[in-house]
Structures are given as structure tokens and as C-alpha cells.
Specification:
179 residues; 60s Ribosomal Protein L30, Chain: A; rod-shaped; 36% helix
Length: 179
Amino acid sequence: MKPSTRWTIAVLVAIVIGILLWFWIRRDEPQAPAEVATQPAAPKPEPEAPPATPVEEPLTATLHFDYNRSAVLPGEAAKLDDFAARLKGRAYDRLEAIGHADRIGGDSYNLALARRRAEAVRDYLAGKDVEAGRVRIEAKGESEPVTGEACRNMGPENRKNRKLIDCLQRDRRAEVSLH
């Protein structure tokens, strides 16, 4: 046999022995399981969170009145109707009705007018099945105007100045809120 053939056989035997030893050593290592095609598992449902306590939005309504009047206007009554409807089914201790007046007239007169406006709101709500004893009324008179400086220097402050009366419309109001 030629020396080159011997060397070829020796190299081949060494390679075979190396491969066998490699398999022999690897047989003790854990084998990864063969992948089998399976359907994907359904996602686990997330645990349900406890029901959150509903956050009840505050209830408020502001309605406006005619000059020197305390009767609820038909156009403003819808605000109280909506307030009473949203109040149904809610637990509450009391409601607040606060009456306001514009600056035309004397302080004591405006305070009494503001009280009559708050009472008119209470009485209207009582007609909508709201317990009148739970409505606390308060009169602010002309002490909290919302018009600010917008109606300054508009002439005499009396009932004949229609321009001023129209400008002060937003001050003639009652605010009702749930507490």
C-alpha cells in the first residue's frame, strides 16, 4: 500500500473516531424536544379588576331671571328639569340654591329679591319630586356679580336704563348645586 493511501485511511479513521466521540459526549446533554406543529394556545384571560366605584359628576345649574322678578322663566325651566332628572337615583344629603341680584336697587331689597329667587328654584324642584327640606337656600344679593367691569359707566342705575338692565342680565341668577 502506498504511504499516501495509508495517510488517507488514517485521517478518515481519526475523523470517524472524532465524530463518534462527539456524539458520545453529547448524549448526556438534555435534548430540546422536537418541535411539533400545534395550534397556538388561547391567550390567558386577564384577571378582572374589581368594579370601580362610579365617580359621580357634580350637578350644577345656573338660571337667569327677568329684571325685578323671581319667577322661573319657561326658557330657564329646562335647566332645572335636566338637573332634577340627573338627580334621580343619586344619594345626597342636601342641595344648595343661591339667589343673586344685579346692583340696581337698594341692598336690602336686592337681598330679599335674591332670597325669593332661591326659593323659586326650591319650589320648582319640589314640583319635580325633589325633597324641599333638603334644599338649603341662601341669598347673596348683589354681592357676587359676574358681569365685572363690563357694565360700568352705562348711565343712571335705575329701572329706566334698559341698556344697563340688559347688560346686568347675567347677575340676575340662581345657582343650584348638589353637595
